[in-house]
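Technical note accompanying the year-one report. For the benefit of new consortium partners, we illustrate the data format agreed upon in the data management plan: each record pairs a sequence with a structure-token string. No post-processing was applied to the example shown here.
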Amino acid sequence: ALWRHIYQPNFGGLNSLLRVLGVAGPNWLFDTTWALPALMFMGTWVSAGRYMVIFLAGLQGVPQHLYESAEIDGASWWQKFRGITLPLLTPTIYLVSILTVIQSFMVFTHAYIMTNGGPANATLVAILYIYRKAFEDFQMGYASAQAWILFLIILIITLVQKRLEKYVYYESAGGAA
């Protein structure tokens, strides 16, 4: 309901802000050009907090003594970021990239509630199409086949991402046995 209000063409928050800037805002959810980007922005905004928490946990896992050693050696902030932070965040970046790709294929709720696939099927995402085939057209077999194809697409993309794991730096635990 909040996002519908934000995207409302006459009194919505986004178009009101654009009017203040002297720009006429579009009819966000009912324009075939802007409906999908509006849903994409909403999905990004909704997911941002989850990924910030994951990145915060990754940042908190970077040992402070590495920064202290780098400062003693005279490293700049860029050298510390490039040589310490970024390599030690690669497991987090890897995880978030896999989760984001999978989530991007599994978008249903936003498209169903906000536009129901409209206008003119501009926001008809794969999962919503499978849902329609299964529960509106009652073509369960066809929908099941589509779901399997979607699964295979996600699996292939994830396996491609898995090949990129060789660029992920996993810090060894170290310590005596």
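Partners are asked to follow this layout when depositing records. The radius of gyration is 22 Å.
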